Amino acid sequence: MKRRKASAKMTTVAHAGWMTKSPPEQKLNTPFKIFRSHWKRRYFVLRKPSGSLPDQYELHYYKDERCSRPKGFIDLEQCEQIVAGLDSDEFPFLLAIKTFYKNRERTYYLAVDSDQEMNTWVQWLCHVCGLKPEDP
User: Fold this and answer.
1) pTM of the entire structure?
2) Sheet containing 104-111: which strands, arranged edge to edge?
3) Among 38, 64, 79, 123, which residue's beta carbon has the most beta carbons within 10 A?
4) What is the spatial distance between Cα 89 and Cα 125, in angstroms, rounded to a whole number?
5) CA distance linking residue 7 with residue 50, whole number of Å
6) Which part of the chain is the PH domain (predicted)?
């Protein structure tokens, strides 16, 4: 029986759960029109890598809960604003993460299934980004 080597990069999961992510803004037909058909349900994992700085966290998203291959990540080091409770007919529990990197702004719209889930994600994200939650 062979022993597997432990991963050199261990992480601590702070929070995880399902959210539905919008496509990049340039793929939306207009900045304010949000089409559900282009959105993808992803499993998000907020983690603190071992050996990282005290307030350094990573937000990766995956196709499923096995977390075998990341589909992408949101760079929380560049996070400028977290907005909760956006108004949308399609998504009643919608939040946004606004980032700014290399003179380019990107807003990630994320929908969850309940008000409680939205509040939990917003609290975690604001905590790790050093921000206060904002209402639209």
Assistant:
1) 0.81
2) 70-74, 58-62, 40-49, 11-21, 104-111, 94-101, 79-84
3) 79
4) 24
5) 11
6) 12-130
> 77 φ, ψ to 5°?
-65, -25
Amino acid of residue 24: P
Radius of gyration of the chain (CA): 16
111's tokens? 């929908």
In what helix (H) or strand (E) does residue 125 lie, and over which residues does it extend? helix 115-129
Q: N- to C-terminal Cα distance for the chain?
A: 57
Comparing CA positions, the residue from 113, 95, 15, 109 lying closest to residue 59 is 15
The amino acid at 11: T
Map tokens 């966290």 to a residue. 57
Tens-binned pLDDT, residue by residue, of the chain (136 aa): 443 334 445 678 999 999 999 887 655 555 545 555 678 999 999 998 887 777 788 999 999 999 989 999 998 988 999 999 887 888 899 999 999 878 888 899 999 999 999 999 999 999 999 887 766 6
